[in-house]
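Troubleshooting entry. The earlier prediction with calcium ion gave an output that would not parse, so I re-checked the input for stray whitespace and re-submitted. Clean input:
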Amino acid sequence: MSELSALDETIQNLMYEVGERTKAAMTKKLQIDEKTSPHDLVTDVDKSNEQFINQRLRQLDPTAKIVSEEGFGDQVHDLAGRVWIVDPIDGTMNFIMERENFAIMLALYVDGQPTLGYILDVMKNRLYHGGPALGVWENETRLTPPLNRGIRDSLIDVSSYILMNDIHHAQTAARAARSIRVFGSAGISMTQLITGRTGAYITNLKPWDLAPGRVLCEALGLVVKPIDDHPLDVLSSNFVLVAVPAAANDIEQLIN
Ligand code: 2AM
Ligand code: CA
Ligand code: CA
Ligand code: CA
């Protein structure tokens, strides 16, 4: 077994373990705090998951750097070397309000190259994992590239903020599609794309929201493109279009 496959197996096990910890924590009362506003919340489980994951990563890969949402990672200024990117609960609002449709996410970038990605849909027990060298998998099943349909034959996924405020003419793209979906979790949105349920996703993502899904999407031939004039920067916030190539072309013609 290659070094990468062995690492992948270890990380898959870590993901399932954190999923089980998360489900166990849901039997207790959540401690909920506001971050920047009542629309932006964090729980004790976000924080304890991140501490748990980061501690494991430091044991496994002591020289790597860690970028993570809740403050237990490193100050990382560039993607040189090995960089792990951690979202301990993606879709915290769904975690609190729906108690489903949230994910645990992890990615490994090596010298800036997307290498491994993991999205665990906790309540459905589905782990999406892999990368360019290993292929992309849903649990034990290897995924094939989704059908390359144009926007008129696709569902479009738009983040609520972008849709409501019509950022980058997202409503124009939405009107052209068969219908719209809003999931409230970037990770769940990425799983809908890689399984061919949606054809495009327009959103604004932080590093931990984008990095894992980007690895898996690109490995399946989807395109991940900035919508504004900035080049994609995994360490900052990006307005992005993630889509099958045909839908991406259609949307670019509609919104530019
Ligand atoms: P989070 O739950 O890990 O914060 C929908 O809100 C999606 O956008 C989620 O994936 C959420 O990730 C992400 N997101 C990014 N920035 C956000 C913010 N400031 N407030 C709420 N959600 C945010
Ligand atoms: Ca958050
Ligand atoms: Ca997130
Ligand atoms: Ca999060």
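This one parsed fine. The chain has eight helices and 14 strands.
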